[in-house]
Write a structure and sequence with these properties.
9 helices; three-stranded antiparallel β-sheet; Aspartate Aminotransferase, domain 2; 355 residues; alpha/beta
Length: 355
């Protein structure tokens, strides 16, 4: 089919970009033919290209139900109650999946981040380098440590923290870097780690979007001192709420456990001040059955993202988030792209989103 003879609607149907196609409302030209023969756009009352709703998330199945019922009937609903200890089972399985020595399950990704920053020593008066392109929790946890966030601008093409802009912001108060693998694609960890090593900074990865994403063959969350994950209901591995910290440094992981456990360590009686950030048995019961199919699901997300990117390349004005060189797998919690309104007769962003 000759692009130059396509109506806008024919082009968008051919490009297979689903409901994103409707953004061409209001006479937005992409390829030449904008004659009256063109079908009415969905935003103007025409037939949408996609009529079926997207699949519901999170997914439920009989294995999750059976796991939950078993935990419920067992009557041991907290990790310290004994019984089947589903939380400890999940920690072991997730550490194996990620290839780390230890995993600590928490009540949320926010709790995982707070626990990690506290455990690497972030305290009053310290500064932590972080991206402004992130969920608010990545910043709030720095304040919870009585420290200050220092925003490092983003790389416009990748949406990630820009390592080339980090060193100018480092001073005697800088304690740590918190790279966020936004949307599930890895940040430029080689550059980040090199700068952190040069200035003796800790690296706490916010990998809440990126379980099983890989950078140069290594999984996100294993590239810094500690890696943090979220299992909130919208995430790719969900349980309603929940989170995890992973790491290979036994002493550091012991500190994480103590802090998240009301300041009570597992091996000694030397308590500190700490919150109660423990995951409960029900959350772990929802997560464990999903681990059986999680790798397959992430592979499917990568296949779908690759296909979508290949088709969006045919649409000027839509620029997908660019993976860094060395990205061997994405988590694809989200599929990000930039919208160039000048390619759509300057239709404003809010109208694009509405369409």
């Amino acid at each position: 089919m000759n692009k130059k003879n396509l109506t806008r609607r024919q082009f968008l149907t051919t490009a297979s970009v689903g409901t994103v196609a409707a953004v061409t409302s209001g006479g937005i030209g992409i390829y030449g033919n904008t004659s009256k023969k063109a079908a009415k756009l969905a935003i103007h009352g025409g037939q949408p290209i996609r009529s079926k709703p997207f699949p519901a998330w999170p997914k439920t199945d009989e294995f999750i139900e059976k796991s939950l019922v078993s935990t419920f009937r067992g009557g041991k609903w907290c990790r310290i109650d004994g019984g089947a200890n589903m939380v400890a089972t999940f920690e072991k399985k997730f550490a194996e999946l990620m290839g780390t020595k230890r995993c600590l399950a928490t009540g949320s990704g926010t709790q995982a981040l707070h626990t990690s920053l506290h455990s690497v020593g972030v305290d009053a008066g310290d500064e932590v380098l972080v991206t402004p392109c992130t969920f608010i929790a990545s910043v709030q946890v720095i304040f919870l440590c009585n420290a200050l966030p220092v925003f490092v601008d983003v790389d416009l093409e990748t949406f990630q923290i820009d390592p080339d802009k980090m060193e100018a912001l480092i001073n005697e108060n800088t304690k740590a870097v918190e790279p966020v693998h936004i949307s599930g694609l890895p940040a430029n960890m080689d550059k980040i780690n090199a700068i952190a090593k040069k200035h003796n900074l800790n690296v706490v990865e916010d990998a809440c979007h990126a379980p099983l994403a890989k950078y140069k063959g290594k999984k996100c969350g294993t590239l810094g001192d500690l890696g943090c994950f979220s299992f909130q209901s919208s995430k790719t591995l969900p349980c309603g709420e929940g989170g995890a910290v992973i790491g290979n440094d036994e002493e550091l992981m012991d500190k994480c456990f103590t802090f998240h456990n009301i300041g009570m360590p597992a091996k000694t009686k030397n308590s500190i001040m700490g919150p109660k950030y423990r995951m409960n048995e029900f959350e772990a019961s929802v997560l464990i059955p999903q681990l059986m199919i999680f790798e397959e699901q992430v592979d499917r997300r990568n296949e779908n993202a690759k296909y979508l990117t290949s088709r969006l390349k045919e649409m000027p004005g839509i620029i997908p988030q660019k993976p860094y060189e060395g990205t061997t797998k994405g988590g694809y919690y989200l599929y990000g792209f930039r919208y160039k309104k000048e390619k759509f007769n300057n239709i404003p962003r809010n109208k694009f989103l509405k369409a």
